[in-house]
Write the structure tokens for this entry.
Amino acid sequence: MANSLSEIHVDHFLPTIKSLRTWWDRKKYIDAPMFPSYVFVFLKDMQDYFRATSVEGALCYVKFGKEIAMVRTHVIDSLKLILTNSKNIEISDLRFQPGRQLVIQQGVFAGFACEVVEYKNEQKLIVRINLLNTSVLANIPTNMVLMGEVVSY
């Protein structure tokens, strides 16, 4: 679907992550959508709105009531930054217990609010993105960041 949007010149964003897939005869890393079944579309006008829905595979826009759900630019920018600068990213729909809440003070993730959680018997930094009921978990090397003070929400 993302390729079709490119062909009709509708600006979009399809975040992907490396995912290990196993078949009966082999294993292979593939680029899989970070949020399966979702493509972020940047609408300039109503023409873009209707062209995007006419693409094969498009079902509908996510809506709250009659309003199209809008994803803030800083959320998309944060996703792009995480994808560009982290190698080990996982997406989870699990609800994590609140842990120590911090602000990353240095490195490419400076300013990000994050939380220390344990996931699959490892401590990871989780950047909660209130989008599609998911959490983005990243192994961020300690030499890239310095943890700041606890954040109160």
